[in-house]
Amino acid sequence: MTSSFVALKGLDKRYPGHHAVRGIDLDIAAGEFVAIMGPSGCGKSTTLRLLAGLEEPTGGSIAIGGRDQAGIPAHLRDTPMVWQSLALFPFLSVADNVAFPLRMKRLGAKERRRRALEWLDRLGLAGMADRDIAQLSGGQRQRVALARALITQPSILLLDEPLSALDAHLRVRMQTELSRLHRQLGITFVYVTHAQSEAFALADRIVIMSEGRIRQVGRPQDVYRAPANPFVAEFMGMNNLFRGVCRGRADDMATIETPAGHYAVPARRPLAVGEPAAFVVAADRITLARAEDGPPSGPAVRGTVLGLEFVGSTQTIFVETEGGQEFRVQKQQHEIEALDLVPGRAVHLAWEPRHAWLLPETE
Ligand code: ADP
Ligand code: MG
What we know:
By secondary structure, this protein is an alpha+beta fold.
């Protein structure tokens, strides 16, 4: 990234008894949509709160638009934030909630009202200005919170799991809305979520954190197809992870010895014989056949179906190999209909060696 609008350098936050953010470096371009993901407690919200000025870093720096943010209080920053719990004022009308940040900026009542109506209109809430917050649905409240955050025309919007309190249907609608807003406004969005589907649908780049550190930054297709380490590979959930030792090198392939067998893996990085190695095969890259139909060509593993899980039209099949390794295989419903997969059925799993991804890092 050549021009960075937001620059985090060695950003660090220690609470008494907990080191929440551990030296984060991250550059975000102007207008980018960045999603921060990671398990609960990994430091996502803390990072966002540091950006918003709601917490003081214990180390490192934050620059926005080239300006060091150290010492600038939250209310003087250009970094409004939207939460899951919205934090709307129940005793103010919808319009007064939206206009609230302008009151802090000492704008006149008429101008505040005019701008609030304009933003309510933009967010599909025309005609609701004088209602009580309590009279709104969850989705409408979410829009009020967005209008309130955007009314000061910030250059960056921070969102902390803003959709997680909504039901599935509404979440998808708000996702579309956020995407539209981001395109229309052209401002930078930093979006914390634990929902992979949201991050993948919305973000230009995804940041994956674990225990206060960034483990990978990349476009959605990169973290999905080319995870940097076992943590990211397993966090993405649809990968089968193998750990082992490199036993041979020929041309661009390496042979990796694992407890489940020896496998050929494209060696896209330097890897010496005897070195520990880890690779993944994505669940949707694995083919599956019934054992009685004979082993398929290419590397194959014999196993037993443990169970099946439906997600819409795709199905995840869990298979345990004879060596005790658990595999996930992801297929479209129609691809496996004829196989009559039930728990206990013996199957062969296979994949093309070129679909194995050697992880750049082994830890
Ligand atoms: P996430 O949003 O990724 O779930 P947080 O950034 O909220 O995680 O928290 C990261 C870690 O820091 C957690 O273990 C949390 O308990 C701890 N933490 C957060 N805020 C405080 C605080 N004010 N005092 C002490 N520990 C905190
Ligand atoms: Mg959080």
